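quick one before i forget lol
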Amino acid sequence: MTIGQVVDGSMRHPHLTIKRIACGKGAYYRYTSGRKVEGQRVLRRIKSLAIPPNWKSVTISRDPKASIQAIGLDAKGRKQYLYHPDWHKQQQVEKFKRLTLFGQKVPEFREFCRALVSGEQWTIERASALVCLLLDYTGVRIGNAQYSKENNTYGLTTLRRKHVQEATLEKVSLEYSGKHSKRRTITIDDPLLASLVCECTQLQGYSLFRYQLSDGSWCDIHSEDVNDFIHAHLGESFSCKDFSNLGGQSICTAKLP
């Protein structure tokens, strides 16, 4: 089975009619009608799902062919979904088709972004275009302000100037703690991108990537801003995550000159 999270928490799954009830160091199961699950075939199927024992509020599908086989809350209270293998396979096929289309769109989008970053003012469009080029070049995660605050880890939009270990017009090195507190060292040796990141180190504030409003004030760029930029120019179905899925510069259909 495949574990994942679903953004839409309003989904309803009427086939989830079995509840896991904690009992000592183990558990037993009841239907929502109150009847205890005693059928050996059903119990064997539930066991085969390998539902994490630390999940709470677990509900299980009575239908062995349902796309969602179980739902529960993990240790952090996040809703987690256990999917049927066939559903996962279909999702992988759809993901491949989607990434193929995304890869076909990237070269033209890349040139569009390169034209935008040639400007002089750090508008939100220019900052977003630079972040997209860096996502494309490195394949790193975009980052999220809330996640960074809670876990003290970073992604592209949450990087600070202190994470720049080397900055010249030819080469930039970034060192930071990424997801799962894994140390990351990123080298950017494309002259255009290196010079732009070097310029960003001279902007006001602690954050590395920022933009200036018409009144002269400065704002940090956020993942939501970059996603809005991608939606506007590539379509609503694509996001920052697609660059990471595509694998960065080694998989893109063309490389920055």
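fyi The helical segments are 40-48, 85-116, 124-138, 145-151, 191-200, 223-234, 241-246.
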